[in-house]
């Protein structure tokens, strides 16, 4: 089975690295974080009470979600920029603690493996819950200061005003929430290959993953 899972904390570089690995192998991508962000967007725009777990899970079941290269459409509306907002990420992290929401998203995530040459799935629980059968599971970590630094530079490069200390506090809070939730917490699968990318370049990480895949098949 052509499947690599890449899990890890926020801003560990999973998205960029998954895209490069998938491109190199000619495979598709599942950005599972986007599904949680889409759920957050739906909660925020449809007037759903975010404290109401049942209502949050229900709203997601009916959404028409389309991923098209770098754009995401929800019920026909292009939402790519809204999904990247910090406020959307925060709401995503909050509602991602709801077991019923996670359950509602499970089949959508598993469907990504059908009809593709291979799949790189990135998120928090790809190797532990969604695709425990994956032949290669990567757990990508990086020092939180380094991650905050990367996120800060990313924003500044895009011309967006950013505050390093706020980013750092926010990342720590997000890590805490993702690692300590009762359902599908962020943790490496028992058979995961852990890569610490704190002092590695992107290409170096991509090569390490491709090397691990070559050893796997
Ligand atoms: O990866 P990204 O930052 O886009 O994910 C947004 C939020 O969605 C994360 O903070 C996390 O709480 C949640 N998430 C999750 N499980 C996944 C992917 C993301 O709980 N597989």
From TrEMBL:
<dbReference type="InterPro" id="IPR027417">
    <property type="entry name" value="P-loop_NTPase"/>
</dbReference>
<protein>
    <recommendedName>
        <fullName>Cytidylate kinase</fullName>
        <ecNumber>2.7.4.25</ecNumber>
    </recommendedName>
</protein>
<dbReference type="InterPro" id="IPR011994">
    <property type="entry name" value="Cytidylate_kinase_dom"/>
</dbReference>
<dbReference type="InterPro" id="IPR003136">
    <property type="entry name" value="Cytidylate_kin"/>
</dbReference>
<keyword id="KW-0963">Cytoplasm</keyword>
<comment type="similarity">
    <text>Belongs to the cytidylate kinase family. Type 1 subfamily.</text>
</comment>
<dbReference type="GO" id="GO:0006220">
    <property type="term" value="P:pyrimidine nucleotide metabolic process"/>
</dbReference>
<feature type="binding site">
    <location>
        <begin position="8"/>
        <end position="16"/>
    </location>
    <ligand>
        <name>ATP</name>
    </ligand>
</feature>
<dbReference type="GO" id="GO:0036431">
    <property type="term" value="F:dCMP kinase activity"/>
</dbReference>
<keyword id="KW-0547">Nucleotide-binding</keyword>
<dbReference type="GO" id="GO:0036430">
    <property type="term" value="F:CMP kinase activity"/>
</dbReference>
<keyword id="KW-0808">Transferase</keyword>
<keyword id="KW-0067">ATP-binding</keyword>
<dbReference type="GO" id="GO:0005829">
    <property type="term" value="C:cytosol"/>
</dbReference>
<dbReference type="GO" id="GO:0005524">
    <property type="term" value="F:ATP binding"/>
</dbReference>
<feature type="domain" description="Cytidylate kinase">
    <location>
        <begin position="4"/>
        <end position="210"/>
    </location>
</feature>
<keyword id="KW-0418">Kinase</keyword>
<dbReference type="Pfam" id="PF02224">
    <property type="entry name" value="Cytidylate_kin"/>
</dbReference>
<dbReference type="GO" id="GO:0015949">
    <property type="term" value="P:nucleobase-containing small molecule interconversion"/>
</dbReference>
């Amino acid at each position: 089975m052509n499947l690599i899972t890449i899990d890890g904390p926020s801003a560990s570089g999973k998205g960029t690295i998954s895209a490069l690995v998938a491109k190199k192998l000619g495979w598709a991508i599942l950005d599972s974080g986007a599904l949680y962000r889409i759920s957050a967007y739906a909660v925020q725009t449809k007037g759903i009470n975010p404290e109401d777990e049942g209502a949050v899970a229900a709203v997601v079941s009916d959404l028409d979600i389309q991923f098209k290269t770098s754009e995401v459409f929800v019920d026909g509306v292009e939402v790519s920029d809204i999904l990247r907002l910090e406020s959307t990420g925060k709401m995503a992290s909050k509602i991602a603690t709801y077991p019923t929401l996670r359950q509602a998203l499970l089949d959508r995530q598993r469907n990504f493996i059908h009809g593709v040459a291979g799949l790189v799935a990135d998120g928090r629980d790809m190797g532990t819950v969604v695709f425990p059968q994956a032949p290669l599971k990567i757990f990508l970590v990086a020092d939180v200061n380094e991650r905050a630094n990367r996120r800060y530079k990313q924003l500044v490069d895009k011309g967006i005003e950013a505050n390093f200390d706020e980013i750092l506090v926010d990342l720590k809070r997000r890590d805490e929430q993702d690692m300590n939730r009762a359902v599908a917490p962020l943790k490496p699968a028992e058979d995961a290959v852990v890569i610490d990318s704190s002092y590695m370049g992107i290409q170096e990480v991509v090569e390490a993953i491709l090397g691990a895949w070559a050893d796997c098949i």
